[in-house]
Please model this.
Amino acid sequence: MTKAQAGLSTSASEGYREKMFNLLANRDPLEVLAQTASTLADIVGKHSATVLRTRPFEENGLRTRLSAI
Model:
């Protein structure tokens, strides 16, 4: 890996980290993580399997399928 590639990788990871902390606002990351299972259970309990399997947007070709990988 060249120095330029390492710089890009670090910038991308720092950007991701910053985005995640912004989403947390002032909440403790460990508390949010601890609540994840019950939050998902609530969502699954409120919606039918059909709704949960439905894509939120109509698939638009190969690009959509590849971005889901």
Notes: Helices lie at 3-24, 29-46, 49-53, 62-67. The chain has a mean pLDDT of 81. The two ends are 24 Å apart (CA to CA). The chain has one domain: 3-56.
